[in-house]
Amino acid sequence: MALAAFLLIAAVALVSALGLILKRNAVHGALFLVVNLGSIAALYLMLGAEFLAAAQVIIYAGAIMVLFVFAIMVLIPGKEETGPDPRRSYRLLAAPLGALLLFELAVALAARRGAPGAATAPAGSVEAIGRLLFTDFLFPFELTSVLLLAAMVGVLLLARRRA
Amino acid sequence: MGAPGLHAYLVLAALVFAIGLFGVLTRRNAIGILLGIELMLNAVNINLVAFARFNADLVGLVFTLFTIPITVAEVGVGLAIIIAIFRARKTIEADHLNLLRG
Fold this sequence. Notes:
The complex is a heterodimer of chains A (about 160) and B (about 100).
Chain A (H helix, E strand, L loop, with lengths): L1 H21 L3 H21 L3 H26 L12 H27 L11 H9 L3 H22 L4
Chain B lengths: L5 H21 L3 H25 L4 H31 L13
Helix pairs in contact in B: 1-2, 2-3
């Protein structure tokens, strides 16, 4: 079971990585990167690193991807969308598929309410990581904040429009 | 059919790293190159987390927590440089940026 899950996640990660490389369109590349980062977050979950999985989703799939998509939007103007919709059939398919997904979610939630509440998982590694981060690795941790500050000042300087 | 071992994660990370390296070397678009670098950094993170798990040592996880902000700084500065280059040269095709070529 665990092996099957690993193989599935690994396949998603590899296919999305290949898609990122082989697609010439930069926006498609960025979206493939989201899929890849999400599958890696799932791998972290399999490895028992819940906190890292959450951080991966929030930082990579959230912050970094917004940055990438924004830069692509600024730098690579796409063609104006005019004329008839080329993907009309896909869009017509989207509504029933979305309804199906909603139904599935509702069924899953209903089944979960009936089941006895699972015992809360042990604190996981969050507490241990935090303890390690603020004792043994306190100095590197503080250095990271200095690095981020330096990067922020550098980006502001680079992005400033020369008057 | 048991749980995947350490070697499975290492092989996957190596494959993702190789794909990212291929992307960095073949993409002409500077943003595409940055996307490839992201892939490579994530492959390294997979390795760190897998080693941390299979050696039952949390230091690998803490190390990954340090590489993530460094990646964020790298992307931020990299995209700012690309935007500055675009303002100056009106292109982000890596082949056209040969100002430092001897």
